[in-house]
Amino acid sequence: MAAPDQVFRDGQNFIVPKGASVPPFCVKCGSGEVAMVNKDIVWLDPLYYLSLVLGPGGLLIVYLIARKKMRLSVPLCEHHRKLVSRMRLATAVILIGGPAVAALMIAFGNPDSTGWGVLLILFVLLGGMITLRLQRPLSAARIDDDRATLKGACDAFLSRLAAKTAELP
Question: In the chain, where are the structural domains located?
């Protein structure tokens, strides 16, 4: 049985009470040779996406107000730490370099290159969103005032955690 202040498993998710430490095993492969990487885990209630009708400015304001965030030390092995780092670099290159190349293409290219520039911007944004997702070792299924429910950990990591019991809230 897991104590209320310890990390425990709930199916394919795991729950981290505020102030609890994640066990020192890589969340992606279960390896015991890890370093702790500080990550901000952010969660939005799915109803947030209804605010899309407010436009970009309203969407940003609602995001800043409605998001729930938890700072967490995530255990990652060397391989997965490097993978996260490479994805972070790829995201920066794609989201900064891609629009710059597209803008140059539109500004200095022939009239036919404008359509290609706009298409490039759309592909860059899609690629940026994909690499942004890949650089997160875990994602939040929910964050409450007292705990976070996280998903994305491997079975080898989850098998080391105590299962949720009926006594736990």
Answer: 8-163
Pair of tokens at residue 33: 């040779």
In 3D, which of 162, 133, 158 has the Cα closest to residue 13? 158
What are the backbone angles phi and psi of residue 4, rounded to the nearest 5°?
Answer: -60, -20
Which token pair is 138?
């875990």
Digit-by-digit pLDDT tens for the chain (169 residues) are: 455 568 999 999 999 998 888 999 999 999 999 999 998 898 887 777 777 676 777 777 777 888 899 999 999 999 999 999 999 898 988 888 888 888 887 788 777 777 777 788 888 888 888 888 888 899 999 999 899 999 999 999 999 998 875 444 5
The DSSP code for 153 is -
Q: Are 84 and 131 in contact (CB under 8 A)?
A: no
Q: DSSP secondary-structure letter at 11?
A: T
CA distance 146 to 138: 18
